[in-house]
Amino acid sequence: MSDTVHEPAGPPVIGNMSRFTDDPLRVLTGLQEAYGGQYPLVRLDPPVGQRFTVVLDPELVHEILAQREQFRRPAVGPEAQQRQGLVSSDGMLWEQQRSVLQPEFVGGNLSTYADIASETVTEMLADWPEDGTLDLHEELSVLTMRVITQSLFSRDTGREQATAVHNALATFSEEFEPSLTDVVLPERLQPGPSEEFEAADEVLEGVAEEFVDWHRDHPDPPTDMITALMDAQADPEIELSENELIDEAVLFMTGGQETTALTITYAFYWLSQHPNIRERVAEEAQTVLGGDPPTWGDLSELTLTERVVRETLRLTPAVWNLSREARTDTELAGASIDAGEFLLMSPYAHHRDSRVWSDPLQFRPDRWAGEASRSNDSYFPFGSGPRVCIGKQIALTEAQFTLAHVLQEFDVSVDRKQLDLQPSVTLRPSRPVEATVRTRG
Q1: Quick one: which of 357, 364, 352, 375 has its CA closest to 421?
Q2: Please, are residues 272 and 359 in contact by the beta-carbon 8 Å criterion?
Q3: How much is the pTM?
């Protein structure tokens, strides 16, 4: 493999960045397929504006993600106003937040969260028609919102409130779509957030504030993520402002809802394209669960269901791109990286590299029982390094439980052959995902 940075030719003036902003998924997968294994890095360098380098070597991806002090999360366009929660914070603030929140995502809490997920799916299915259609993405967004707020905030969420968050995130998705103005114009000339973005942000902040206020007003609040943050806020050795507490609640509320809902939605889509696999998942659920809701103890036996989730995360990872900014001039794979240079690392592209995956565009869950390894460097749907997704196990459990629980009772078929994907903050469908649901006889 060459130790130089490859710079593919592009049209004059704006270079190859115009292709990237028009169709980033196609460009990133094209670069990965054309130059992966040959060059570790490919640079998209317009004559003005921000320099971007795409990381094609998977080992290098993990090296970059492990170096939190050298490579930080960048802020581009509206993201420059991002909240200071664990997902977006940096430095000492990040270390403090991670240490406070980590205990909420380990040990016995996981089985408690699994029970919450199981009970919430049961309640969702009770409201489904015996034979009808529904917007699957919205339905699952309501579900995952309820699970995350009950698990981390000890409060349930009504459909109206959960739908409002779902719609606010759709507005965010439109605002965060890749744009030439984000990468060509200097930060001082970039347009600020739209009125729609500001209104959506107020919705999210209002919901989070309601949860925090409830804990403050409760004479004996439950032990959960918000009380952990409130205790940390009262600790003189930890710097955690009121705004940062609200930011943390917003980021976990939305992140826990959005990415998991997308994963389950896409799993149902792929199973609809492969009804024989869908029936195998239903049979596994009926055998393991015997008509009952899933429990933590059932998780290890839902092996095919787990493979379906992993394969869904390979082909359609909700987090389609990870980006970092070099803090100082440095060197990667023998190439010079300037301070301020952006590095793009796309799970979506790496997960489809034909040098790594056999039949990379095919949905084959059984690959995870054979040649595919969870430890493969080219597979990183939850990131890597110290900033690996803190809620990874909750997300995987909720996705498995939901698929098994639903397919034990309902046949679910997404009514389209191809999804229109919108790469933004997450990889979202650009329009509702309608599905036909029928109870199993």
Answers
A1: 352
A2: no
A3: 0.89
